[in-house]
Amino acid sequence: MTFVDNIIAWYSAHMNYASITALMAVESSFIPFPSEVVIPPAAFVAGQPDSVLCATGNYPIDVLLIVLFGTLGAMIGAIINYGLSVWLGRLIIYKFADSKLGHLCLLSSEKIQKAEEYFREKGNVSTFIGRFIPGIRQLISIPAGLSRMHFGAFLWWTFLGAFVWNCILAALGYVAAGQMDRIKEYSHELSVAILVICGLAVVYFVVRKLISMNKSKA
User: Fold this and answer.
1) Which of 24, 65, 98, 144 has its CA 20 to 30 A from that of 138?
2) What's the 3-state SS for the chain?
3) What is the pLDDT of residues 36-67, one digit of tens each?
4) Can you give the residue ranges of every domain in the chain?
5) Is residue 101's pLDDT more than 70?
6) 20 with 65: CB under 8 angstroms?
7) Does the pLDDT value for residue 208 go beyond 90?
């Protein structure tokens, strides 16, 4: 069994709000771990009758609290990345990414650079949009920390992105009936759809801002 398989087996036997928070904190940090194996299975369990849960030794959990605690965990992991980036600085972060330990965490200087370029291109809102992009999701907090993004804005956009993403995963937990292959397939498609919607929203706000500026000059 792989490391992830062992964690999944442990999680299945210890599924509660604390384990959801802890695993989502790991998922949102630089340690590679898929959120698809945390939120959807919990949402699926939450949808089962209490009698079924008691018979299998599980405790009833609420889907809204799953989303909230999952979002809390995601924010904890993101804050860790942000804090380490501010504290260590760009040089050490890049050296760590290219170290053996960094490679074990599936990091590389190329991935960090890609996240930085994305952050520079999209600005602060990238901490929201990046939550829906595979390969960027776990790393977007690093360039936010390296650029010393305003911490209040960082928390807000991180919360919003993590909350929306966890809502999507929770909904998939009901729809896919615990089938992880389908969850991963649909989560990728929904990531693209959400990214398009976010892009349209950004264009709308930019156009609205430009119109407002032109009116003020007139």
Assistant:
1) 65
2) CCHHHHHHHHHHHCCCHHHHHHHHHHHHCCCCCCHHHCHHHHHHHHCCCHHHHHHCCCCCCCHHHHHHHHHHHHHHHHHHHHHHHHHHHHHHHHHHHCCHHHHHCCCCHHHHHHHHHHHHHHHHHHHHHHHHCCCCCCCCHHHHHHCCCCHHHHHHHHHHHHHHHHHHHHHHHHHCCCCHHHHHHHHHHHHHHHHHHHHHHHHHHHHHHHHHHHHHHC
3) 788 888 888 877 766 445 444 566 678 889 99
4) 3-217
5) yes
6) no
7) no
Contact (Cβ atoms closer than 8 angstroms) between residue 6 and residue 22: no
**What tens digit of pLDDT does each residue of 140-157 get?**
888 888 888 889 889 998
Q: How many CB atoms lie within 10 A of CB 104?
A: 11
Cβ neighbours for 28, distance < 8 A, ≥ 6 positions apart? 73, 74, 75, 76, 77, 78, 81, 137, 138, 141, 162
Six-digit token pair at 217? Answer: 């000059």
The residue to which tokens 């053996």 are assigned: 100
Greater confidence, 184 or 140?
Answer: 140
Answer yes or no: is pLDDT of 21 > 90.
Answer: yes
Distance from C-alpha of 26 to C-alpha of 5, rounded to nearest angstrom: 15
Helices 63-97, 39-46: axis angle to 10 degrees equals 170
Instruction: Please list, in sequence order, all residues whose beta carbon lies within 8 angstroms of the beta carbon of residue 202, skipping any fewer than 6 positions away.
Output: 122, 125, 129
Radius of gyration of the CA atoms of the chain, in A:
19
